[in-house]
Amino acid sequence: MTAMSGSVLDTSVPSETVHDGLIPSSAAADFRLLLAKLPLEGNCPDFTSADLQSSRAPLLGPLTTDEQAAAILTTIWTATNSTSRIRWQGQLAADALAAAEEQRIIDEASTQRAAAEKLQADLLAEEDKKKKPSTPYSHP
Hints:
Blueprint: H1 15-19, H2 25-37, H3 53-56, H4 66-131
């Protein structure tokens, strides 16, 4: 299947490449959009049809019949679709984990901000308390 590398069917981008910042975030987003459209939906094309003769032609030879070429293309399509579905599920899981982590970070920052604001308010209240003159205690 390495012969498929670089073809339209090869949608792989190593996750390290995306996460290491080697791919701009817009490209990573585009890749996720691509995976959002995958797996290939629908049925396997009928590689025996006349419309797909041009797909079979490069595989034809003295030892490969038209039917065998169609079977090879069907096998390739099925394997590629299966791999795409697995990648798609993996991307969905990774996106869910990333969203959960992002939300955790937002929640933690919000909690820290609220704690800092409360501490600042407490310190200001304490300073105001120290600045106010104390009223002498009067005896009746």
